[in-house]
Predict the 3D structure of the following.
Amino acid sequence: MKYGLPVTLSTLLLPAVFAATAEQWRTRSIYQLITDRFALPAGANRNACNVEDRTWCGGTWSTIRENLDYIQNAGFTAIWISPINQNHEGERPYWGDAYHGYWIADATQLNARFGTEDELKALISEVHNRNMYIMIDVVVNNVMATSTTPDYSKYMFKDPSLYHPYCPIQWGNPESEQNCWMGDDKVPLPDLDTNNPTVIATYKTWIKDLVSKYNIDGLRIDAAKHVQASFWPEFCASAGVFCMGEVFSSDVGGAAQYQGPLDSVLNFPMQNALVRAFSSSGEKNIGAIPSVLDESKQKFRDITVLGNFLENQDMGRWASFSSDMQTTHNAMTFNFMSDGIPVVYYGQEQGFASASDPYNREPLWPSGYALTYTYNITSQLNQLRNHLIRNSDWLSSSVQVLTTNEIGIAIKKGNAISVMTNIGSSPRNDVRVTVQSPFSSSTTLTNIFTCEEFTVNSGASFDITYGNGGQPAVLVPRDSLSGSGLCSASI
Ligand SMILES: *[C@@H]1O[C@H](CO)[C@@H](O)[C@H](O)[C@H]1NC(C)=O
C-alpha cells in the first residue's frame, strides 16, 4: 500500500485497494467494457448507435460510474476499461473513428471524449468505495497514424528515430511481429523502438505517474507479444501493479513465455480449447480441455492468475458461432470454477451474438441491462467463487480433472465439483457424466444453479444426467454454502 501523503485521518479512511499485486488480483473477477459502449448519459438518444458507423456513441467515465450497480450486482470485484489516453482526432481515418480507444496519439493526455481528469478520478474512487479494483488498458507497443509518414510531433515520443522504420508485419516471424508496424496501409500503427533506452526510461516514468495519479490497481497490456519480452519486467516494476498482457496465441508455449516478464496473460489457449470442446458448431472435442490444462500447468509459471475469458473486443462473440446459450453457460462455468481470474466481456451476460469488429463492440444499453438468465448464472458463479475465496482453501487449491467422456467433463477445485457438457439445451436420456466422489459418504451436496441436493453414497460415484438438457452443475457440500446467500443459505 503506497500513500503519497502524510497519514491523516482522511487518508486512513480511504479504502486500501491501491496498487494491487498478482496475489490480490487472484481473488478477483473482472468485467471488461468499452467505455464508449457501456452506458449513455441521461437524455441521450438511445437509438443512435449504429456499430457499422464505427463512430462514438456517447459512453463516458461518468456513465460507467453511474452504472456500477449493474456490474457489482453480478458479483464482479473489478472492472477493466478500454484505454484512457488521447486518441487520434481530426480527419476521419479509413477504418472509422477512434471510439474504441486503442488509437493512441499523445499518451501524456487523457482522452477528452470520455471525460475530464476529475471524472476519471471520480469513477476510480467510486470503484474503490465499492471495494472493487480498476484495471486500465494501456497501449505501449505503438501509436496510430493515417499514413506511413506521420507527423510525429503529435505523439508523446516526437523524435522519429525512437520508432522502428516502417515495414509491414510478416505474420509468423516473431522479429517482424515485434519490429514492424501493425495495422495496414490505411491505418498504420507506428511501432516504438522498445529497445531504445530513451523509450524504456520515458515509458517507465509515464506508467509510474499514470498509476499513482489515478490510483490504478492493474494494467491490461495491449499487443504485449509485439514488444520483446525483456521490456516488461522493468515496465511493470515501475508501474508497481498487476500486469496482464494480451498475447494473442492459442499456443501454450508461446503464451507462457510472456508470464514471468508479465504477471499474467489472457488465457487465449484455454479460450481456444473451450471453443473446441463446447461450441455447438465446433469439434465438440472435450479432450482439448485436459490437454491444454496439463500443458498449461507445465509451461506457465502460475495458471491461477491467468485471465480466463470467452469473448473480447477482437473476436466474434461466443454466441456468434455457438448459438445455444447452454454452451455459453457450460464454458463460462469452466472459466469461473477452474484456476484463473474470470474475465467477462460486457454483453456476454446479455447473450449478444455479434460477429467480430465492429459488430462485437455494440452498445449495451439496448439490452435494458436486463436480469437475463445468463446475467443470473454469471452472478451465481461470482457469488459462489467470492464466497469460497473468503471461506475456504479455494485460492491455494489447484484444479483437477476428475473425469471426462465424449460429452462432458468434471473438475474439482477446493470443495467445488463442476460438471460441464457440450450437448446443448435439448434433453438427452442416453448420456451422462459419472463422477467418482471425492467427498465422504453421507455428505449432502447442493447444485448452486438449481439448489437440488443429494447425498453421496459410501465409496460411490454419482451421475449427472441430462433429462432436462445440458445445464452445467456446480456441486458443493451444503454446509459450505453457509454465509453465501445462495440456495437460501444465510448471507
Ligand atoms: C434473474 O434474477 C432476478 C432476481 O434475482 C429475477 O427477478 C429474474 O427473473 C431472473 N431472470 C431470469 C430470466 O430467470
Remarks:
- Residues 371-373, 376 surround 2-acetamido-2-deoxy-beta-D-glucopyranose (CB under 6 Å).
- Residues 401-481 form a domain with the Immunoglobulin-like fold (CATH 2.60.40.1180).
- The two ends are 30 Å apart (CA to CA).
